[in-house]
Design goal:
The protein has about 375 residues and is an alpha/beta fold. It is built from eleven helices and ten strands. It binds pyridoxal-5'-phosphate.
């Protein structure tokens, strides 16, 4: 049996008629950049998330960069984020001229450890970028409380978490959290949310794409200008912007897929639950906790005792694809060699994490096969 970590084909086959029709109509319209399809997607996503503005851009990376620029963050400023994320999170901070400051993560949620946040705040700190890693909402109540106290912006990196819902900071309890936030979609809790539609994400296009969401008119207006060369109207450029427009083909595909996202996220959760049942009591691994609202962009286990790479090869030999997200904390990438900021938990997890196959159409038989092979590895 061949089980890749992700297979995008079954979803296309399922939606082929609908998607092909939508693509054909865009081709007929010859309206390829922004235009009615992008506007419709922006409206539909704003409505889905319950947020005032949604602005389609070229990628998740651009969504972060433009969000930071719209908040007027730049040279001399510091932005706090997680070292355990895709490089783009920190790259966006550096790209606008600011300095990323890394705060270690909580080993159970893989997200920012809010208890370590305050000591990292300086006079230069302007914002916090929590990452909802693997589709698990970060501890937004604590992050918002700290941001309010120190007058900081909160930009949510929702690249892996379209449709994820916040249900409290703690994994099991629901106490001590800001009740007003419970039940809100990620991206609508901070001041700005940044989404990616990279094809492998939970809501994936067939090319690059991203979106910025916010309730604030002035941020939305700046973001709309920044995505088209800093111009409110043509030939009236007011600032250095970007060419970061979402294209209509991607928007029409995303509009089809948006109708299914809740169903797909539920299927991901079901797969995570099945893995957790089938892998319960396997010694030498730690399973992810299934908290309410988690959309399992990745299902990531921790493999203890230095066995991770061995297990990865063992599974590969049996046709099972796995990935390591992420093999190095961001502050240890060559580009940040001068910034090294020790993050012992992120360091440890970089050696332990292994993401298993997960996508909505992954069959029960395949999940069972993966789990059996993992059991086998630890039992021989
Ligand atoms: C994918 C991803 C991004 C970047 O999105 P692109 O659309 O690829 O630019 C940023 N942050 C995180 C956490 C991601 O997973």
């Amino acid at each position: 049996m061949e089980i890749p970590i992700l297979d995008l084909k079954p979803q296309y086959q399922l939606l082929k008629a609908e998607i092909d029709k939508a693509i054909a109509s865009v081709l007929e319209s010859t309206q390829f950049i922004l235009g009615p399809e992008v506007e419709a997607l922006e409206r539909e996503i704003a409505q889905y998330l319950g947020v005032k503005h949604a602005i389609g851009v070229n990628s998740g990376t651009d969504a972060l960069i433009i969000a930071l620029r719209a908040l007027k963050i730049g040279k001399g400023d510091e932005v706090i984020t997680s070292p355990f994320s895709f490089y783009a999170t920190a790259e966006a901070i550096s790209r606008v001229g600011a300095t990323p400051v890394f705060v270690d993560i909580n080993p159970e949620t893989f997200n920012l450890d809010v208890n370590q946040l305050t000591p990292k705040i300086t006079e230069k700190t302007k914002a916090i970028i929590p990452v909802h890693l693997y589709g698990k909402p970060a501890a937004m109540a604590a992050i918002k409380a700290i941001a309010t106290k120190y007058n900081l912006w909160v930009v949510e990196d929702c690249a892996q978490a379209f449709g994820a819902v916040y249900y409290g900071d703690c994994l099991e309890c629901q106490g001590n959290c800001d009740e007003k936030l419970i039940g809100k979609y990620v991206g609508t809790i901070g001041h700005v949310g940044a989404f990616s539609f990279y094809p492998t994400k939970n809501l994936g296009a067939y090319g690059d794409g991203g979106m910025i969401v916010t309730d604030r008119d002035e941020i939305a207006e700046l973001a709309r200008m920044l995505r088209v060369h800093g111009a409110r109207k043509s030939y009236h450029n007011e600032m250095l912007g970007y060419n970061s427009r979402l294209d209509s083909l991607q928007a029409c595909i995303l509009r089809v897929k948006l109708k299914y996202i809740d169903q797909w996220n539920q299927q991901r959760r079901n797969i995570a639950e099945t893995y957790n049942q089938l892998l319960a009591n396997v010694e030498g691994i730690i399973l992810p906790k299934i908290s309410k609202g988690h959309v399992f962009h990745q299902y990531t286990i921790r493999v203890l005792n230095g066995k991770r790479d061995e297990l990865k090869s063992y599974l590969a030999e049996r046709g099972i694809g796995t990935m390591i997200y992420y093999p190095r904390p961001i502050d240890q990438l060559p580009v940040y060699k001068d910034y090294y900021q020790p993050s012992p938990i992120a360091n440890q997890l970089a050696k332990e994490v292994l993401s298993l196959p997960i996508y909505p159409e992954l069959s029960w038989e395949k999940v069972k096969f993966v789990a059996e092979k993992i059991r086998e590895f630890f039992e021989v």
